[in-house]
Specification:
single chain, four-stranded antiparallel sheet, amino-acid transport, ABC_transporter-like_ATP-bd
Length: 239
């Protein structure tokens, strides 16, 4: 398998505070890869570093063999890397349709109707809410919209930051089922950052564990799920 995304020796800082300390990570074409860790471990910082905000002070972010470490965020988006950020960040005053139109800017208008049907098949609720303002949707619907908006850009790589955060279990299942379906039917490559380690590792092919800005463990998801230290730190009390 060829690496679609390679993160090599990345150090990221906020001022003088180091948030990432020499991170190495790979996401291969057609894989779902999960990054798990406790709150404040640096998971979201890594996700944002891929898009250059904040920039890596040392190391390299490479996409399809091309170094994108210093590239502007809008140029990175044009490479068909799409992000569904933590906290959803939809356009609250815009309708569901307008949010989806914003997502399709990178891909252009040519496939708009087809792509619209594709996201409605995954998330039928959005079709029912088409003219509603994004800010009036429930938390689960907003998360579906954030992911659908990212999918409208026809991404080669989908970055998902904490998609299950604050959502009811039934909604979480629906969202994770949709991600699995996209991967299985379309071969979509997905990099997911998730505090819910159990759900993330059940979904992913491989996983990485981050502690204090460093990768401490990596391997096939089933292997990580069975490891005592992973179970003790991230899975006890629910699974």
């Amino acid at each position: 398998m060829s690496a679609l995304l390679s993160i090599r020796g990345v150090h990221t800082y906020y001022g003088n505070i180091r948030a990432l300390a020499g991170v190495d990570l790979e996401v291969n074409q057609g894989e779902i890869v999960a990054l798990i860790g406790s709150n404040g471990a640096g998971k979201s910082t890594l996700m944002m570093t891929i898009f250059g905000a904040p920039r890596a002070r040392e190391g390299h972010v490479v996409f399809e063999g091309r170094d994108i470490t210093r590239m502007a965020a809008h140029h990175i988006a044009r490479l068909r890397i799409a992000q569904s950020p933590e906290g959803r960040r939809i356009f609250a005053r815009m309708s569901v349709l307008e949010n989806l139109q914003m997502g399709s800017v990178v891909a252009g208008a040519e496939h708009f109707e087809e792509d619209l049907e594709r996201v409605f098949t995954l998330f039928p609720r959005l079709k029912e809410r088409l003219t509603q303002r994004g800010g009036t949707l429930s938390g689960g619907e907003q998360q579906m919209l954030a992911i659908a908006r990212a999918l409208m850009s026809r991404p080669r790589l989908l970055l998902l930051d904490e998609p299950s955060l604050g959502l009811a279990p039934l909604i979480v299942k629906q969202i994770f089922d949709a991600i699995r379906q996209l991967n299985q039917t379309e071969g979509l490559t997905v990099f997911i950052v998730e505090q819910n380690a159990y759900h993330a590792l059940k979904l992913a092919h491989r996983g990485y564990v981050m502690v204090n800005g460093r990768i401490t463990l990596s391997g096939p998801s089933a292997e990580l799920l069975s490891r005592e230290e992973v179970r003790a730190a991230y899975l006890e009390g629910g699974h």
